[in-house]
Each structure stands twice: as C-alpha cells, then as structure tokens.
C-alpha cells in the first residue's frame, strides 16, 4: 500500500495543529514538494538592544507523500535544530560566541588545519 498524496491544504492543516512558544510554521512551494520553515521575532544577537526582527530557521523538505507522523517529526527536528542554533548564539565564553552557527565553514576548516586540539597532558 502506498501513502496517498497530501494536498497543500492538508499539510497546512497538520502544521496548524503544531504549537511551539511564539513560533509559526510556514509552508513554501518547492517544485515536487514543500519546504517547512519556522519563523519568530527576536532581536539580532549581533546588535544588542535592537528591536526584534523576523528570524527564520533553515528550510526542511516536506514531501506530499509523507505521513502525518513524518511531517510532525520533521517539524520537531526543525524546532530542535533551531533551539540548538539559538543556544549557540547566546552561549558565551570570555564574552565571545565560541559556538556560533554563523561561523563560515571555510573559517572552521582553517582552525582544523591548525590542529588546535585540546588534549590531556
């Protein structure tokens, strides 16, 4: 038995049953399916004291052939990843965001190339 194809309206109905803090879940068209993105307002962490601005998570693929459980699990993964991202922006060591998700991957590779490993002596 194959999973019946869900309509956009059915998927949006599933998403409307989700609740996480003040966040909203939005569905974007993507050719053969959709993209799920969670949005919320929060000040920009690089601009202390700034007004809240619209923030958006990375986008998560939603197939119209997913089950309800798969869609809810994808939204849960989105929430978890978003919270990890927010934590990385607010966790400080010596006044710096050492775990920021905004570091460029090439910059991270340069650090790897320097082999600055923390080992027990």
- Compressed to H and E, one letter per element, the order equals HEEEEHH
How many distinct folded domains? 1
Radius of gyration over alpha carbons?
19 Å
| Total beta strand runs | 4
- Residue windows where pLDDT falls under 50 for at least 5 positions: none
Oligomer: single chain
- How would you sum up the major sheet? 4 strands, antiparallel
SSE class: alpha+beta
Assess the beta-strand content as a share of residues.
15-25%
The average pLDDT value, as a whole number, equals 92
Distance between the termini: 59 Å
Number of helices: 3
Q: Describe the global form.
A: extended
Give the fraction of residues assigned to helices: 25-40%
Report on the structure:
This protein has 121 residues and is α+β, with helices and mostly antiparallel strands. Helices cover 34% and strands 21% of the residues. It contains 3 helices and 4 strands. A hairpin with a 2-residue loop joins strand 1 and strand 2 (33-43). The model has no long low-confidence stretch (mean pLDDT 92).
Break the fold down into its secondary structure elements and pairings.
Blueprint: H1 8-16, E1 24-30, E2 33-43, E3 52-56, E4 60-62, H2 68-90, H3 105-113
Antiparallel strand pairs: 1-2, 2-3, 2-4
Please outline what is shown here.
With 121 residues, the chain is of the alpha+beta class.
Q: Which keywords apply here?
A:
single chain, 121 residues, alpha+beta, 4-stranded antiparallel beta sheet, 3 helices, 34% helix
């Amino acid at each position: 038995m194959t999973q019946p194809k869900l309509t956009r309206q059915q998927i949006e109905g599933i998403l409307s049953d989700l609740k996480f803090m003040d966040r909203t879940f939005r569905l974007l068209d993507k050719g053969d399916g959709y993209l799920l993105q969670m949005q919320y307002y929060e000040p920009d962490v690089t601009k202390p004291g700034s007004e809240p601005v619209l923030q958006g998570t990375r986008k998560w693929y939603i197939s119209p052939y997913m089950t309800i459980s798969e869609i809810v699990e994808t939204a849960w993964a989105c929430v978890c990843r978003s919270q990890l991202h927010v934590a990385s922006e607010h966790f400080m060591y010596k006044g710096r965001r050492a775990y920021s998700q905004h570091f460029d991957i090439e910059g991270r590779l340069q650090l790897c190339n320097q082999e600055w490993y923390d080992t027990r002596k």
